[in-house]
Amino acid sequence: MDQHMGVASKEEEDREEKRTVPEITLRPFTLSDVDGFMTWATDDRVMRFSRRPTCTTKDECLTHMKDLIMPHPWCRAICIEDDGRPVGLVSVTPAPGADVHRASIGFGVAYDYWGRGIATAAVKKAASAVFEEWPLLERLDAIAEVNNTASRRVLEKAGFQREAVLKSYLVLRGESMDMVMYCLLSADSMVR
Ligand SMILES: CC(C)(COP(=O)(O)OP(=O)(O)OC[C@H]1O[C@@H](n2cnc3c(N)ncnc32)[C@H](O)[C@@H]1OP(=O)(O)O)[C@@H](O)C(=O)NCCC(=O)NCCS
């Protein structure tokens, strides 16, 4: 009986942990984040919507970080623990050329941390930060594969507006995919 109650309360504890949105911080990456980075960059469940191949080794993760993460104009580690180990990534990429009023957001969270509101909190924080840091920004875009329900839900929870379905828009893993275009026109239109 006691044993069963113990199991029940552990399950209840786990459910409670999932219901509580942890306090998150965003900070730039350093190469010493590679172990945290590996938890999602080597996981197909996280990487399958990315145009980058899934890493298979620590060396590949380090190369990816050196080539793409460190030089990126705005890429942040999502951290929830006091030890600062990243559990995900959010990036905002300015549009090329003269379109300085436009940028696009991307994000991913390590599988063990899904469903706790972490991506939604990170997207909101990132959007607030870039609208403040980049005064010329008028429009933050996001595109999500039509069947990527979690990603679409994150964007909608953060207040992004759905604009259009872009048929056969991106090639992901060798297949052309229909994508949904979302946008946020100011930090004020975010859901707080
Ligand atoms: C998308 C992703 C970042 C979400 O991270 P997360 O921290 O779990 O997101 P949140 O907890 O803030 O919100 C997820 C929402 O999607 C919902 N959701 C997740 N999977 C779902 C599914 N299969 N069907 C319906 N809703 C789903 C959750 O219930 C939650 O909504 P709710 O709060 O209304 O219940 C994560 O799943 C991921 O890393 N996916 C792979 C990478 C990716 O797709 N990146 C985005 C590319 S545009």
TrEMBL record:
Please name the InterPro entries in this protein's record. Acyl_CoA_acyltransferase, GNAT_dom
Query: Where does the N-acetyltransferase domain start and stop, copy by copy?
Result: 24-186
In terms of SUPFAM superfamilies, this protein maps to: Acyl-CoA N-acyltransferases (Nat) (SSF55729)
Ranges for the region named Disordered are: 1-21
Q: Name one GO molecular function term.
A: acyltransferase activity, transferring groups other than amino-acyl groups
Pfam families, per the entry = Acetyltransf_3
Q: What is this protein called?
A: N-acetyltransferase domain-containing protein
